[in-house]
Amino acid sequence: DAKTTQPPSMDCAEGRAANLPCNHSTISGNEYVYWYRQIHSQGPQYIIHGLKNNETNEMASLIITEDRKSSTLILPHATLRDTAVYYCIVRVNFGNEKLTFGTGTRLTIIP
Amino acid sequence: DSGVTQTPKHLITATGQRVTLRCSPRSGDLSVYWYQQSLDQGLQFLIQYYNGEERAKGNILERFSAQQFPDLHSELNLSSLELGDSALYFCASSATGSSYNSPLHFGNGTRLTVT
Predict the structure, then answer these.
(1) Which of A22, A63, B43, B111 could form a disulfide with A88 if both were Cys (CB 3.0 to 4.6 A apart)?
(2) Is A29 part of the contact surface with chain B (CB cutoff 8 Å)?
(3) Which of A35, A36, A37, A71 is closest to A52 using CA atoms?
(4) Does A98 lie at the interface with B, CB-CB under 8 angstroms?
(5) A53 in B contact zone (CB under 8 Å)
(6) In angstroms, what CA-CA distances link B26 with A65, A70, B10, B14, B76?
(7) Which residues of B touch A37 (CB under 8 A)?
(8) pLDDT tens sequence across A53-69
(9) CA distance B30 to chain A (A)
(10) How far apart are CA B91 and CA A64, in angstroms?
């Protein structure tokens, strides 16, 4: 599986943009970058995914570098409810598909 | 609401017992995944089914087994339970089993406590 590296923790002021980085230097050409978050002990929540183009949805934006070795998840106006562990995952699919979660980034939104 | 339903929400049982966790995937999703999350640990992939057949297997113990039924719901069976099996068990579903472009949607989990 392509490995991802994320900072263990980050803080962000409420109302500001939260920018969460992820390195995935061993990513293959057909692997998507996925972002999920887990609030306390709830089930992980899908946020966004992309291949090589930048993506935006109602929750967030995903910026993927041209060489695809890193990406940034942007929460444009962070609220206290965005406090969670954010996971960056590279989706692999070689016939034995699985989605491996690392340790993620614990994002704390500060009032 | 992800559309994935897991029952029961909580389960308390004794060591040596057997339990069954149930998962109903989102409407139209063919693939079901099971994950285990122990206290303060990451999510560990256990097993995946696609349209009734086992597709991928992770670090699933021999005491654990799963199946996906014709109506696409899935059950995870845990037997000879040990204290260390206490964890959150999550089910997820996705539309396909082999697409790179198919997000997983998770249920809210079953919290298993083995005493």
Answers:
(1) A22
(2) no
(3) A71
(4) yes
(5) no
(6) 33, 31, 21, 32, 17
(7) none
(8) 899 999 999 999 999 99
(9) 14
(10) 29
